[in-house]
Amino acid sequence: MKPIFLDMVWPAIFVSTTFYNFWYLVIGTIIIETFVIKLFLKFNWKMSIIASLVGNCISGFIGTFIMIWAMLFWHFVADNFVPNGTFGTTNWVATFVLMCLGSVFLETLAIKILYKEKIKKLFLPMLTGNFLSYLFIAYSMITNSNANPAEKSIQTIKYLPNKQNFILLNKSKLFIDTSIIKISIDKNGKRMNDSKSPGYYLTILFKKENKNDFQFEFKILEDQFTNGITDSSQELHLNELKNEFKVLMEQKNTDTSLGWQKPIITDTLIFKRIKK
To answer: Which DSSP category does 231 fall into?
Structure first.
């Protein structure tokens, strides 16, 4: 998929957000790399802890920012060639591999400056430590639950699009199902703000003929960004709750030289709230 500023997210955003939303992961990576550094480099505990702290601070605060935008450049080029689009398996693997290697480079450089060690000596332990750390992050992303202990109930609001069946530009079929907004209610009967951002999230549910083939995406006219797209849904952020929303459908350009660099707006959908 095309990565567009404020309108699109890419896998690196999710990986970096995991660091900041789940601070304990940073502690976990520091502990993992402390043991790896001590094992491989034979540093004492103090030197190992300092090396891990300095390396992770640099890769975490500076490296993460750099790698997010480096991965954006990757998507500008690779998304026109790799299968399944921005959130396909290939790009998820590439994201973890390239972000891991970026962290290895920065941490190796930091420890070289700190302790005057040779890069050749530092590379393997840094690679091992970061590999284990990113496995830890991937596991946390997969297994993390968004359940909130303060949440008592969930109110579901349903929306029906004015058109549900489509033939896409690549001749495949698409069916857009009833879409939903979920509102969390706390123990006092009041609405809870979504943890990701104030507002609401319209989840557009759909069934497409070709799995793992990202040929389209949705954009809402009233807001600035989306939460990415999967094989069966896409979340659109809303500033306020309404009875009707206008949503654009963009499709990948059939000209392979353009692809997601120049998508085509093919439809304007109207989602109307279903009355109970």
So the answer is: S
